[in-house]
TrEMBL record:
Feature: DNA-binding region: 44-63
Gene source species: Streptomyces phaeofaciens
Entry-linked InterPro entries: DesT_TetR_C, Homeodomain-like_sf, HTH-type_TetR-like_transc_reg, HTH_TetR
Stretches assigned to the HTH tetR-type domain: 21-81
GO molecular function, one term: transcription cis-regulatory region binding
Keyword DNA repair: no
Highest taxon of source: Bacteria
Name by which UniProt lists this protein: TetR family transcriptional regulator
UniProt KW Membrane keyword: no
Keyword line: DNA-binding, Transcription, Transcription regulation
Length: 219
C-alpha cells in the first residue's frame, strides 16, 4: 500500500512571501529615485515601468495605482528618516538633541532622493501626502521635545516654536544637499545653535519650559 507523505507547503510559501517583500522593497527603492528626479505629474506608469525595467502590471500588482506607489514610497522614506533621527534614547537630554539633528542630516546626506521625496515630492496639493509629511514633522518635533524637555507631548507654545524650527531645517537641508559647501559637522553645529535660540525664546515666553544646557562637544 502506497501512502503518500503530506507535502510541507509552509516553507515554499514563506520563501514566496520573502521574495514578494523583497521585490516590493526593490520597487520602492527605484521609485524613490524616479520621483525625486521627476515630478509626480510628469511620470506616467509607462515611464515608471520602462525606467524600472519591469512590466507595468507588476507595479499595479503591488501598489494598485501610481498614487498608491507614490504614497508607499513616501511612507517608507518617512519611516526610515524618523527611525534614524530618533535613535540614541540612552543619551542625556542635550546629547539626544545633538544626536537627533546629526541623524537627520546623515539621513539626508546619504539618502538624498528619499529625503527630497519626503520634503518636496511632486503630488502638489494632495491632502494625504501632506498628512504624511505633517506626520514626519510632528515626529521630529516630538523627538526634539523629548530630548529638550524629557517629554514628547508638549503644549502649543513649545510645539509651535519647534515646528517653525523644523520647517526651517527642511529648507536649509535641501539647500545643503544640493550645495554641500559646509561639512555635516558644521551644518549640525549651526542647526544646534539655531535650535538653542528657539529653545531660549520658548523659555523666555514660558519659563515652565527651560532650555537644556548645551551638550559638551569633544573635538
Amino acid at each position: 500500500m502506497n501512502i503518500s507523505q503530506p507535502r510541507d507547503t509552509a516553507r515554499p510559501r514563506a520563501r514566496g512571501t520573502e521574495r514578494s517583500l523583497a521585490r516590493r522593497a526593490e520597487l520602492i527603492t527605484i521609485g524613490r529615485k524616479l520621483f525625486a528626479d521627476t515630478s509626480y505629474d510628469a511620470l506616467s506608469m509607462d515611464d515608471i515601468a520602462r525606467q524600472a525595467h519591469v512590466a507595468k502590471g507588476l507595479i499595479y500588482y503591488y501598489f494598485q495605482s501610481k498614487r498608491g506607489y507614490y504614497l508607499a514610497i513616501v511612507q517608507d522614506s518617512v519611516a526610515d528618516l524618523v527611525s534614524f533621527a530618533a535613535s540614541g534614547l540612552e543619551l542625556p537630554q542635550a546629547d539626544r538633541v545633538q544626536r537627533t539633528i546629526d541623524g537627520y542630516l546623515r539621513y539626508a546626506e546619504h539618502n538624498q532622493a528619499a529625503f527630497r521625496t519626503i520634503v518636496s515630492g511632486g503630488v502638489g496639493f494632495d491632502t494625504e501626502v501632506h498628512a504624511i509629511r505633517d506626520g514626519v514633522r510632528a515626529a521630529i518635533v516630538a523627538t526634539i521635545a523629548e530630548g529638550a524637555y524629557g517629554r514628547g507631548d508638549v503644549p502649543p507654545l513649545p510645539r509651535m516654536g519647534l515646528l517653525a524650527w523644523v520647517c526651517a531645517v527642511e529648507g536649509a537641508t535641501l539647500d545643503w544637499i544640493d550645495r554641500p559647501e559646509l561639512s555635516r559637522a558644521t551644518m549640525c553645529d549651526l542647526l544646534v545653535k539655531t535650535l538653542g535660540g528657539t529653545l531660549r525664546a520658548i523659555e523666555e515666553i514660558d519659563p515652565a519650559f527651560p532650555a537644556p544646557e548645551p551638550a559638551r562637544r569633544d573635538h
